[in-house]
């Protein structure tokens, strides 16, 4: 009996080995095909997923808001400058040296009260010379007058000629004019002499003292040459520049509330006393003057004040946040969304600017769903995604003072 494993075995073993090899090769091919198909499929799926994500990311996400009706009243806050009811710098009217000052800053003074005294030796000498000149002119006039009267008597008796009498009359008239000139010069120097006493022009308080004893005083009004500054603070004036859109609502008698940085938590009531009744051509604002009683002296001239006006509102107009408005070539536009969340650009007519909101006179309705902070690239018919449900009012608006 022969051994099947011996070299003498029949060729059936080689066939079995060949069949096994083919089977392994086939399995390897199938695995390779499966791996190739899986790789291609995964890549196609990844590419499709990436395209879907890119398309989804290309759709901008926006916040929305709706226009709101204007309130029954508007609160207008403007900066104001506080000034004294009367305020004047005090200059010297005569030259000399400061002899003494009697009032310092913060001193309450009455009209005519002495503020300072000036030594004027030159004016004193000129005054004495003017007095002597007047005495000389009076003596000359008296002599000429007496001579004229005598020559008139001689003319009546034909003792002198008419020409001589007329000369004496003319000399008397000239001496009278010289006496009047000397008297006027003396009066002028007496006025200068009186200006040695610097007095308060009205009741008030001394807010500045810019001189000291021994200082050289020059007569006249030049920059930095004022000796004192006196202010009447029993009543104050507040000046406000009102923008043109609100100018028509500012009328005399309108009340306002004032707030001061040095009086935190306190509010003072003032009233419009008058307006300029004309707009400044540069700033397009109306200057309004308010007045407030300051008998207690609590408020200080020169202060900065916040002036709060309460103006009648317009309930028939709509308001939108300023950051919902775009500047385009056709004017101001807003981006409104339809039910399919597609953008429709609407041109609007703007009214007053309230800082965080802008009044819209036409172009939108209360039912419009407006995009807040729309990108400049937003276009008509563009598809967007809404991040949240529409909100009312100025949600997402910029801080006060912002502009679209």
Describe it:
Helix 2 (121-156) runs antiparallel to helix 3 (162-194). The chain folds into 4 domains: 19-58; 61-72 and 316-392, conserved putative lor/sdh protein from methanococcus maripaludis s2 fold (Beta Barrel); 93-199, Helix Hairpins, CATH 1.10.287; 231-312, Beta Barrel (Elongation Factor Tu (Ef-tu), domain 3). It has helices at 12-58, 121-156, 162-194, 244-247, and strands at residues 61-66, 68-69, 73-90, 96-101, 108-109, 114-119, 197-199, 204-209, 216-217, 228-243, 255-260, 268-279, 285-293, 304-312, 318-321, 325-328, 331-337, 343-347, 349-353, 357-362, 369-372, 385-386, 391-392. Helix content is 30%, strand content 35%. A hairpin with a 5-residue loop joins strand 17 and strand 18 (343-347). The protein is rod-shaped. The chain contains 4 helices and 23 strands. Strands 1, 16, 17, 18, 21, 22 and 23 form a 7-stranded mixed β-sheet that branches. With 404 residues, it is an alpha+beta fold.
